[in-house]
Write a structure and sequence with these properties.
With about 180 residues, this protein is mostly beta strands. It contains 1 helix and 9 strands. The chain has a 4-stranded antiparallel sheet with strand order 4-3-6-7, with no helix packed on it. Strands 1-2-5 form a 3-stranded antiparallel sheet, with no helix packed on it. It has a two-stranded antiparallel ribbon with strand order 8-9. It starts with a helix and ends in a 24-residue tail after the last strand. Mean pLDDT is about 85; it is low at about 10-25.
Amino acid sequence: MASRLIRAVVGAALVAIALGGCRDEGGEGEYFRISGNMFEFNYRLARATYIVTLNPLQPMDGTQTAVGTFENPAGGDPIVVRQKIWPKLSHVTLESPPLTCVVKDKPYAVSIAIEAADGNVVQKLETTITSTLDQSILPDRPLVVGPVYELNKELAGHPDGRLPNEPKPDCPAKV
């Protein structure tokens, strides 16, 4: 009796694992879904970036590329990031280069194109990211520098990271 119960539990567990391993959740033309998006404010490094995470809905063969197009908070041309999609990773993360002029409570447009090896777009995703902080909270310069996070000597006497008369970026008017 106990042997039969153990076999049934093990069998059910194997079926659950096998079904959980199949990522064929997406419909026709659905390869990814956006599982997370945010602004990352790194106070120590005095920078803000966009971060978008994609979860695969079906297996990828490693020939695809994710192309993220982010609205530029400073105005001007959008910021474009290309990321190869590795087939064995559980998610794809797109991160922008450092940004300027991020405004609290303003939605910024983001679009992501999944490109096949030949450059054809096989899926397009759209979202917005809204910051809960204004970039003015960041220090003027990184508080630490180098691989061991040494204190930034440029900020000697200014532990808050604010430098008198430091030029500010020319940002569009807040909306």
